[in-house]
Design brief:
The complex is a heterodimer of chains A (about 150) and B (about 325). With about 150 residues, chain A is α/β, with parallel strands linked by helices. Chain A has five helices and four strands; from the N terminus they run βαβαβαβαα. In chain A, helix 3 links the parallel strand 3 and strand 4. Chain A is globular, with a radius of gyration of 16 Å. Chain B is about 30% helix and about 15% strand. The chains are: A alpha/beta (about 150), B alpha/beta (about 325). Chains A and B meet through helix 2, helix 3, strand 4, helix 4 and helix 5 of A and helix 8, helix 10 and helix 12 of B.
């Protein structure tokens, strides 16, 4: 049983290798205090992120998903984050129709030098998810709560 | 249908240059039509265009690439053809498009609901206003307006947007204005957890037949569909509602900026899951953010294949 069982939620973070992952590292090196709910997945570029990763993470039990890449015009591959911005904006607007609060997902831009900004982003996003509480689960031990919602809708 | 003879003549004039012309003909009972592949002159006589011509025949086009194909299209089907042309999945020179003024097609689920069952229909007479169905020694009259598919009552493109031959008088396309998103808006009145419950309930009856995918004119991946791929392994083979719902999200997302809302996914669904709503929602957003509508201009660049340095309609979160 994890030490923080019950107090910690599961947040998945997709971070681009060049800026945000570096930024998170900078925050770590600078010893900025951060919440521990976030599990980071490093991707080559925010343009690598299929928006379906976000939905898949949610359906597999994540309580929130955070995506972070290089600032627009700063992409290591010149334009990956411009495409990403369009895709992520669409999926953010799409989540509510599925029954996930739009606040469970956020995307932002953090550069490798912005350790401080990374700390702010993680802290405020984690707070936001804690305010919402755990996301409805489809499978696994917590699925019974969802089933009761389902029966209520019947 | 008045234009039907004119259309038959058009087809028979061009037929010698074509390998096949796709239309509709009568099916196993008077209440259904079926896609009709015309290869010889005598096949043309069987062509029947009526409110039962529900199928979007554009679905067959990518599979017939390389052949000279003629296709009869309703307004909504023609938008799928435009989309296929835009994506370079078919060649304009090989496709001959026959248009006609479409006054709407029926929704078989609505008829079934109104009649209880449609097992032994003996005859079905159709006029502009009514369907007269003879069944079980009874004659029942259904109002045509009530039996039309939802997409037809709010149709903005009754005439083909692209055609080589057009039989009959054009009704007049309304274009990109006055889009009806009543179904989505009504659904959005539910609270967020209720929506989640709704989808779990609806998708629970999904039998994973993938008819929605197979009927979709823009699902063109064939053997490389994400639903059946093991690498990447998007979906398991398990029978659970999570994977069923996930597939619908995959379908909707892969159609973002491409879907013309022809409604084939929902029509093909054997258990009547309202899967079109996902696509309508996606289109609504794309319209709001990018002012783009798929299936109108074969030369347009779809929004997700382009970008602007400064997006006018995207406001990023401030931390």
């Amino acid at each position: 049983m994890p030490v923080l069982e019950g107090t910690e939620l599961r947040i998945v973070g997709f971070l681009c290798n060049w800026c945000s992952y570096g930024g998170a590292d900078t925050a770590g090196v600078g010893r900025f205090k951060q919440p521990t709910d976030l599990r980071i997945i490093r991707v080559p570029c925010s343009g690598r992120i299929d928006p379906l990763f976000i939905v898949k993470a949610m359906m597999n039990g994540a309580d929130g998903v955070l995506v972070s890449g290089c600032h627009p015009r700063d992409c290591h591959y010149s334009e990956g984050n411009f495409y990403a911005r369009r895709r992520l904006e669409i999926i953010e607007k799409f989540l509510p129709i599925l029954g996930y609060e739009p606040e469970r997902f956020a995307y932002t831009w953090v550069s490798a030098s912005e350790g401080q900004r990374w700390q702010e982003v993680v802290t405020s996003f984690t707070d936001q998810i804690h305010k919402l509480g755990p996301a409805p689960k489809i499978l696994g031990p917590q699925a019974s709560d969802t089933l009761s919602v389902m029966e209520a809708a019947l | 249908m008045k234009f039907q003879e004119e259309l038959k003549k058009c087809i028979s004039d061009v037929m010698p240059e074509l390998d096949v012309v796709i239309g509709w003909c009568a099916s196993f009972d008077p209440l259904h039509a079926t896609p009709h592949f015309m290869r010889r002159k005598e096949d043309i006589d069987k062509l029947e265009i009526s409110p039962l011509s529900v199928h979007n025949l554009a679905t067959y086009l990518p599979g017939l690439r390389g052949k000279k194909v003629g296709i009869v299209v309703k307004g909504c089907d023609s938008r799928s053809v435009v989309e296929l042309l835009q994506e370079n999945l078919i060649d304009r020179k090989d496709v001959t498009i026959f248009g006609f003024p479409c006054t709407g097609v029926v929704d078989q689920s609505k008829i079934k609901k109104a009649l209880g069952h449609t097992g032994n229909v003996e005859s079905c007479e159709m006029s502009d206003t009514a369907l007269v169905i003879k069944m079980d020694d009874k004659t029942q009259t259904l109002a045509m307006a009530e039996m039309l598919a939802d997409k037809c009552s709010s149709c903005r493109y009754p005439d083909a947007v692209i055609s080589d031959y057009f039989a009959g008088e054009k009704i007049g396309n309304k274009g990109e204005k006055d889009v009806d998103y009543a179904a989505v808006e009504a659904f959005e009145k539910l609270s967020v957890p209720e929506r989640f419950g709704y989808w779990l309930k609806e998708l629970d009856r999904c039998i994973r037949c993938y008819a929605c995918r197979n009927a979709c004119p823009l699902c063109v991946c064939r053997d490389h569909c994400a639903a059946e791929s093991r690498d990447p392994h998007w979906l398991s083979q398990e029978n659970n509602v999570r994977d069923k719902l996930m597939f619908q999200v995959i379908h909707a997302y892969h159609l973002a900026g491409r879907c013309t809302e022809c409604g084939e996914c929902q029509r093909a669904c054997p258990v009547d899951i309202p899967v079109l709503m996902f696509k309508q929602k996606m289109n609504q957003e794309i319209r709001e953010i990018f002012q783009y509508e798929a299936g109108v201009d074969p030369e347009a660049t779809p929004p997700l294949l382009s970008f602007k340095m400064e997006e006018e309609n995207i406001t990023e979160k401030v931390w």
